[in-house]
Design brief:
This protein has 157 residues and is mainly alpha-helical. The protein is 77% helix and 0% strand.
């Protein structure tokens, strides 16, 4: 069941650099977070309709979104610092990504656990997916508002 997410990540991660170079990093980063948010919102519908098509489309959107996001995010961080600091910038981005993923799992796990404690069982996944989807869509809006289209073209100082 997870194969579509892995394959879509593999394909889009190969294309994200070209997309970012052609259209600027704002497009793939905003689209990536938007797709991840939409994928999570689709997965939140599982209690209403647990069809395989629904599940696979949600996982496919998440995989595509993740693939679009990772490369441009690192490139923007490294391109906007002096060359002597590029290693530090890359390490900081990766550390922030890991901390964010850990906090995300903790928060969404707490949302899920709260609903399981109320006796709804795995239907507690829907609120967790809903919270995660909304957070990703907010992230997409922030990326659209604050990432410059020319972030990759600016010479490091």
């Amino acid at each position: 069941m997870l194969l579509p997410m892995s394959l879509s990540y593999m394909v889009t991660s190969q294309l994200s650099g070209r997309i970012a170079n052609k259209l600027g990093p704002r497009v793939p980063m905003t689209a990536g977070m938007g797709l991840m948010g939409l994928g999570l919102l689709v997965l939140a519908l599982i209690p209403l309709n647990d069809s395989l098509v629904l599940i696979e489309s949600g996982l496919l959107a998440i995989g595509c979104g993740l693939g679009l996001n990772v490369g441009p995010m690192n490139a923007v961080a490294v391109a906007n610092v002096p060359a002597a600091r590029s290693g530090t910038a890359s390490g900081l981005v990766n550390t922030a990504r890991m901390v964010g993923a850990t906090l995300g799992v903790a928060v969404l796990g707490a949302v899920f656990a709260t609903h399981v404690a109320q006796g709804v069982g795995t239907q507690g996944l829907a609120p967790a997916y809903l919270v995660g989807g909304i957070a990703e869509l907010i992230g997409a809006a922030v990326a659209f508002a604050f990432i410059r289209c020319d972030s990759l073209r600016r010479a490091a100082q």
